[in-house]
């Protein structure tokens, strides 16, 4: 209101100033000069502003020195008064009319502003949405559409408005759209449906369409509106989901595992395999807690139930209860189906009953095989001991008598030595196998000159090859190998011995070749050969192909078994290639070495010793005491420690030699323990035995007791005693 009053004063003042500039005039002209000012004030400020401007104008006209003696006389002429009153009345009427017009103008302007705001808002919504909006008249021509529809059609607004669907779409699509519009206008109802529309670019899209009638002010249907939402991607995703669900269901039904989907532990669905495992129908499982079918202790049941309820991962083997009361061993794996906290869980159950039974049978078979192997080892140990006792005595007697016989009896001694050597070889092979089985063989890996090893093998087997009329050849090999040279020499020696044994004519060749970056020592022969399906059998113990009569001239059947086990101990590969009737080649891998340290042969000093001897076999004790005495030693012998200790007279021997198996419950360990307790723990000790039991050999090694196996060779025994003392 103050603004309106200000406007009135300002307009009146401007009018007065204008009147002064006009100069003298009559009353009518004076009042007419102020009348536009009053109208303008009313137009700008309303009725009260015009009225105020009228009053101010009248006062201004009265106080101006006008020729008519004043615009508002206080005691003047009647005509002037009437004129002024008429001016005031007319001014008030004009102010009222103009005030009413002003109020209506303000209301109209406010309505226009509100309409503009609503229009802008609706335009933003219509143009901002991804849905396609349109309005058509009764002739099904487009009245308006939004930008989403224009973009889909690839057209401008002026290219769409006042056109029908036949101008925009293929004929078949246009007929369907026109038919839908006609139904809506005929029924006056709003409908929602899905349809496939071919766009002008030829692409088909799926839409969710809502159409309804548009009413005129008269209430008649004037057209149709529509909202179309492109759901092509959603439908493709839904189709992909359905396809994925179908594949999952097919896989689940075809899976070997039973599958259960649970929510908070309650079964929602299962596949057919799980019904087979549990023995229930599907509807007997669905709706129940999965833990009800798993045989668990209370503690396990709570743990499994908690993990399934919470949708956590789980793995384990359990038993399930079948409907018929039987139990099956199963492997259970479970995991969450989603990252949300909805408790959805997938549990896979695999029946492992047959695998468990097979595993139990395998363990039982393995245990039985181990028992049989142990029994075999014990049998071999006992048989070896029983055979070595008389053989040991025979060997000692032959060694002692060799220097006493006449030269004419040399062949007799040689024959006796051959017999003893053959028996000793067989027992040595048994011993080697026992050592390998016992795990007491410790490889001493080092670099060595290959030539020296192969030369020893060739020289040691040359007489045997010569006796059969075979040529044993090997080429000079200037190379360095790295493994245990003693065990490697035994491998090559066994291969050469086997080749000579099964070759009747031709010869044997020891060769060295490089293949695939590795050195291989090969033994070639022109013997009987081996069938391809029998090459693995030749490495089995006591397996001799073509020696069903067990001819001792063809060996014991242990040589190649020792080769296989020794190579495995050293980590070396062994290969065989053979052609029946043509010959065979055995190859053993040899890792390359770098350098060879010079080997200084150890020389032992053979001096006279006081030897404590415990042997309960009279024949062996007599032979051993005789042989040791013959080479200069003093022997104090006894059948047990009770006999031996008094005979020693409190004087410590230089070494104690004891048989392993003694009469009664006593053995060599007890004898050596008693003597070490009496004369010191560092007393050198040697056990002589024909026993090849791996456990016995391992025990000797653990107690730092040396062992010499029967049959005894006098020179070997003499060297061992010298090494220990």
Question: What would you note in describing this structure?
Answer:
The protein is α+β, with helices and mostly antiparallel strands and 725 residues long. It contains 20 helices and 23 strands. The strands form five sheets. A six-stranded antiparallel sheet has the order 7-6-11-10-9-8, sandwiched between helices. A five-stranded antiparallel sheet has the order 2-1-5-4-3, with helices on both faces. A five-stranded mixed sheet has the order 13-15-16-18-17. Helix 3 packs antiparallel against helix 4 and helix 12 (410-438) crosses helix 19 (694-702). The longest helix has 51 residues, at 78-128.
Question: Could you say which structural class the secondary elements and strand pairing correspond to?
Answer: alpha+beta
Strand proportion, as a percent range, falls in: 15-25%
Radius of gyration: 61 Å
Using the alpha-carbon principal axes, give the shape. elongated
Q: What is the multimeric organization of the chains shown?
A: single chain
Q: What is the strand arrangement across the widest sheet?
A: 7-6-11-10-9-8
Number of strands: 23
**Helical segment count:** 20
- Provide the helix percentage: 40-55%
Question: Kindly state the mean pLDDT as a whole number?
Answer: 76
Distance between the termini: 136 Å
> Which stretches of 5+ consecutive residues score pLDDT under 50?
19-23, 25-29, 65-76, 547-555
Biggest sheet statistics: 6 strands, antiparallel
